[in-house]
Amino acid sequence: MTPNALATTAIPPVPLSVEGASVLHQMMRFRREAWRVLPEAAQAEILAEATQLLTAWEVPAEGRQSAVFSMLGHKGDLMFIHFRRSFEELDQAQLELARLRLGDYLEPTTSYLSIVELGIYESSSKVYGALIDKGIQPFSEEWKREIETTLDRHRAAMAPRLWPEVPPAKYACFYPMDRRRGEAKNWYEESLADRQRMMDKHGQIGRRYAGEVKQIISGSIGLDDWEWGVDLFSEDPAIFKRLIYEMRFDEVSAVYALFGSFYVGVRVPAAELAGVL
Fold this sequence. Notes:
Elements: H1 3-8, E1 16-30, H2 32-36, H3 40-58, E2 65-71, E3 78-84, H4 87-99, E4 106-120, H5 121-133, H6 141-157, H7 159-162, E5 171-179, H8 192-208, E6 214-219, E7 228-234, H9 238-248, H10 251-256, E8 257-259, E9 263-267, H11 273-276
Antiparallel strand pairs: 1-3, 1-4, 2-3, 2-9, 4-6, 5-7, 5-8, 5-9, 6-7
């Protein structure tokens, strides 16, 4: 590549990211009226079958795990959070749950499909710049090989975060979100450098709550109705309010963020499912 061509080569606007676990949230309403007319013996059999499956799913197994939460409010009664190695495994989990006799008494209210995602803003600019300095044409085969090598290093270093366990915290808060695009502000028209600057500042707020809340971000562009899903886990639900409220004053949230519905639940160990139902 000639010096003139190199000077006019634009840094790609899309930040690098690495993906891990496939994630499915299922929000269900429990058909209590139909459940109440069942004989106690039938209820016990149904619960025993469901408890056996859910107990097995509670155990982390190389990025595979499920957890159940008793939802607060009118949006549903139970929230199932599934982490799996692939969409095929998510599909299998969804089918296995539906095949349970308990599934006859669970009515879906909504769901959310996504993939655990870690954005690499800082490395993106450095990697893109280094490749352009070498004279490598963006999106060429050589460029793609170099990018994949970089991503492989990040996948290895970030494996625990890409394939997380469901935190054992008592409370969970899930919500989907978008970055604003159109009207007067458009996140996707900002430069990569400006987005990196804003995300760095945004991340500083989250890091201040590191000992109080566990956050798992999953990407859903092209997979569901919003662009990202956010899971927060904590022993104190008031932390959800404090963290999200503080982030409202950050530029990323104040100017560019749009939020969907919030779903909050209390963790229910499989062995205690009967007490909830």
